[in-house]
Amino acid sequence: MMKKMSISTSKTSLVLFLCQIISALDVPLDLSQPPTITQQSPKDYIVDPRENIVIQCEAKGKPPPSFSWTRNGTHFDIDKDAQVTMKPNSGTLVINIMNGGKAEAYEGVYQCTARNERGAAISNNIVVRPSRSPLWTKEKLEPNHVREGDSLVLHCRPPVGLPPPIIFWMDNAFQRLPQSERVSQGLNGDLYFSNVQPEDTREDYICYARFNHTQTIQQKQPISVKVFSTKPVTERQPVLLTPTGSTSTKVELRGNVLLLECIAAGLPTPVIRWIKEGGELPANRTFFENFKKTLKIIDVSEADSGNYKCIARNALGSVHHVISVTVKAAPYWITAPRNLVLSPGEDGTLICRANGNPKPSISWLANGVPIAIAPEDPSRKVDGDTIIFSHVQERSSAVYQCNASNEYGYLLANAFVNVLAEPPRILTPANKLYQVIADSPALLDCAYFGSPKPEIEWFKGVKGSILRGNEYVFHDNGTLEIPVAQKNNAGTYTCVARNKLGKIQNEVQLEIKDPTMIIKQPEYKVIQRYGQVSFECIIKHDSTLLPTVTWLKDNDELPDDERFLVGKDNLTIMNVTDKDDGTYTCIVNTTLDSVSASAVLTVVARPNPPFDLELTGQLERSIDLSWLPGDENNSPITSFVIEFEDALHEPGVWRYQTEVPGSQTTAQLKLSPYVNYSFRVIAVNRIGRSQPSEPSEQYLTKSASPDENPANVQGIGSEPDNLVITWEPLKGFQSNGPGLQYKVSWRQKDVDDEWTSVIVANVSKYIVSGTPTFVPYEVKVQALNDLGYAPEPSEVIGHSGEDLPMVAPGNVQVHVINSTLAKVHWDPVPLKSVRGHLQGYKVYYWKVQSLSRRSRRHVEKKILTFRGNKTFGMLPGLEPYSSYKLNVRVVNGKGEGPASPDKVFKTPEGVPSSPSFLKITNPTLDSLTLEWGSPTHPNGVLTSYTLKFQPINNTHELGPLVEIRIPANESSLILKNLNYSTRYKFYFNAQTSVGSGSQITEEAVTIMDEVQPLYPRIRNVTTAAAETYANISWEYEGPDHANFYVEYGVAGSKEDWKKEIVNGSRSFFVLKGLTPGTAYKVRVGAEGLSGFRSSEDVFETGPAMASRQVDIATQGWFIGLMCAVALLILILLIVCFIRRNKGGKYPVKEKEDAHADPEIQPMKEDDGTFGEYRDRAGAATSQITEDTLSSSLQPSITAVTQFPVCLPHMMRCFFEEKGYRVSLGKKCNF
């Protein structure tokens, strides 16, 4: 639900221009012209008698006019009255009252005359009267004694003031008396009671009269009202208190507000309705006030005359009154005379036409004198409401007055005839700039003057052709209108004015602006009370215009409340309350236009509680309940929940009775005997539940025998020799009468025994002693009270108490599955030996010792429980190469039985954990020292260590991988014959007979023989683009640990570069979220290196692909197949690349994984079971041979980027002397 409205200042400008069009041309003030009255006081001028009286009269003319006044029809000589002065260069009179003058002395009718050599203009007759606020006449007021239900009128009768006072009723505490359909104030100020009630008794009914002009309030003596009650109160049919009789008349003037009133007495209070006989009440102008007792019609016209009927009705009857309304009219203009500017020899007319009811008479004056006795002018002829001028001369200049009058008032208008001979002049400033919104009217002003009246022509541009056609509208005042301005209408326009005395032109500029639009309008919102709501108002506007956004609530300013937060393009209301409900409008204003959009906010909440609960139709087992629903708070009531209280058994406790639909306001309720009921109702809507209603009256039902027996009867022994019988006692209202007790019965199942019974008080359990251990029993519990027994109860099966199991599980077997998992089996125990409900078996197991360390530690037993009659289970989380013990026990409800004999088992070896540390120290030109610690968890007997290492150049490309086996008893190693100033990465792990453990990695750098500066450089930026992303890679030369970033943007765009930070020191990055089919520019830079970035590269994303209903690329089997094919191709490419380049550069993917586990390279094959691994030599392992050693002796082309592909022979010999086995790919040739 959304309202939308639009306001355009261009339309307002159009109205202003059209007002100029219909007015006469203004004569420039530098030319001779008769006087014109510009300002005067109102015809009926009521003044404050305590302040100076200012009677206004302002006029213009050339030469400036002189002023004179008449008072009560005779000349008013202000020079003879010291209290009266006239303002300089003005006709305004100031009568000094504050220095001794009396306002009453200057009461009268005043008229101002402004005169110069070309004529005289006169003002309206200004009736000056001082305001009056007389005191209330003293009167003795008797108390009003009124019978309850009768009508009453308290008369105000305020003093007659000028203007009439405003009446209101208050009490001694200055609080307004509450008014309603029953009690209200009439138009005459009296207070009307349609019927009085006891609460109307009071002694301070006070009528106040407020006189606004003098800012005084007069108070009437307090009126006392005493209401006495009689039983019963007699109801009465309606009787009109005002107006009296069956008919009346009313006369109102056109344009005024019509007020009609009907106030009726009666009990119950009558309701008033209005109709117009033979017609409809006027829409949009009709309002009802004072609880529909007053009919208000604004801006009445003759069409509103007729008979208006008010009807007062209550349950006993009705009464009506007809008011005959006649609408009269003071004179009003049809055509007011307009100033006339003529050149010598021209003709012209003055027209004065007015209407009214009755028809007004028209009379003419010339320079303030009736035209019949004014000096004759041969060029002038009077024809009723028209004066005709022919061949005027300069002496024909004068001011003419037209007076239209009837019994209800008069109109007086001045219009001059000014005879001039003037060449054209343009009054609009040169090069004036007009700015308008596209598709709205453009009005270009060309205000002009000349006599004779000039002709106006418009041209587009300086040398354009004259404008003609339907595209333009040419107004009499010279304005050029373009009804629908477009962008192509912008430019320079030239206005040319010419008459027989000359010619002149002027240029103006027109700019067309884009309209302001609300592209995201506020939307209808429903919000819960105390929630938060936001309205959006996102706008688009011309870039040269500055918009301002204003929010209104119900077409008024937002409340001054900190809960209302106005953002750039939204309005947020925090902690919403009911008063926030309404229409919110976003208004966007620029200097040229205004747009708005509205949305309604509906605040919803839980309903108000129901009220007026009533019980009817009382029976022994049912009753009818009715209620009235409370306010639903903008969310319909979906249901009513009825609750009851039992004041006899559970006072203060409310329980659920039933629920009925929200459209239902009555319910028939089922009742139980011996309950003192009271009910309450809760309303439910989509928001939640209301507060409960006030409780209904109480209703006590008669007693009866119980209808039901206790629920949830059980028989469970707590000791091996007893049976505990428990049940859920009946609620108080279920007892159905006094003396509630229970009959408890039991007998052993499957044994031919009689029932044993006992009657107990209102309790919830009974214990039977001396029973056999864990045998079944039949149990039942029956309710009874003083009036009899409940129906026969049903039987339930229970058991006497349990005892601990007697036998341990036998034939316990353990099967070791791997180094961390074992499976245990056992035989079930006989059920008779369980002596209770079998709950399951518990396996206790604990580690005795580690076989690799032979050291004992604190024994921590672990327990696994297997529910039910299960005879096997898995033991996870075992430690490899360790000795364990376990036993098994059976469990029942009483506890655990004896344990089985301990069973010993051992876990096999596993792979070790990673070495505890790896340190690289003592770097030299060609050597590094490695130190390490043994694994924290060897998980077996260590057989050896494996060391792998490889060089890494400055672009993170990998050299050949070297592998060395080290005896298990070593803890350090010195690597010699390494390249100087080279970074190496080391991978180190330990082995048992099962396989290799997890590895630890480190990096180290041999030192340089001399320090040489490295000049950073990024080159070879390459891109591989897809539909919405692109892979960016580059090569880097310079210091290590550079932090890269990628900048990109749309090719050819002037927008700023977007920047993405590269994680770590990788030399690649993936740009995501790109637009398909778009050309992008990209460059790479390094943080902290000023001006250091690559050259730009340009790429284009692929076109957007249309989606299909079934896409094979999203099918799981296809993805798996493609991954397998891609992996196979990748392996083949890597092998070929290594063989061809002998340890050269790797592709981008290997750059990313330069510091990753070398196991991902094709250096060895993996095999293992349950996460265990075993090494074996693979054909893909790089071998150190004499050929590769020989190639390492060749001169290096670029020391920084090229690596040796084999170790020198000296290094190989060094390792073999130490007992290490060195595996190299080829034999080195010397």
TrEMBL record:
Major location category of this protein: membrane
Region annotation Disordered: where it falls in the sequence: 690-710, 1148-1172
Family annotation (InterPro entries): FN3_dom, FN3_sf, Ig-like_dom, Ig-like_dom_sf, Ig-like_fold, Ig_I-set, Ig_sub, Ig_sub2
Residue ranges of every copy of the Fibronectin type-III domain listed in the record: 609-704, 709-803, 808-910, 914-1010, 1012-1104
Keyword Disulfide bond: yes
Coiled coil start-end: none
Record-stated family: Belongs to the immunoglobulin superfamily. L1/neurofascin/NgCAM family.
A single cellular component GO annotation: plasma membrane
Keyword rRNA-binding: no
Pfam families with a match to the protein in the record: Bravo_FIGEY, fn3, I-set, Ig_3
Gene Ontology biological process terms, A to Z: cell adhesion
The species this protein was found in: Junco hyemalis (Dark-eyed junco)
Protein name according to UniProt: Neuronal cell adhesion molecule
Chain intervals with Polar residues compositional bias: 690-706
Lineage top rank: taxon: Eukaryota
Segments crossing the lipid bilayer: 1117-1138
Ranges of residues in domain Ig-like: 35-123, 130-224, 238-326, 331-418, 424-511, 515-602
Compartment list: Cell membrane
Classification via Gene3D superfamilies: Immunoglobulins
SUPFAM superfamilies assigned to the protein according to its UniProt record, in alphabetical order: Fibronectin type III, Immunoglobulin
Topology in membrane: Single-pass type I membrane protein
Alphabetical UniProt keywords: Cell adhesion, Cell membrane, Disulfide bond, Glycoprotein, Immunoglobulin domain, Membrane, Repeat, Signal, Transmembrane, Transmembrane helix
Region forming the signal peptide: 1-24
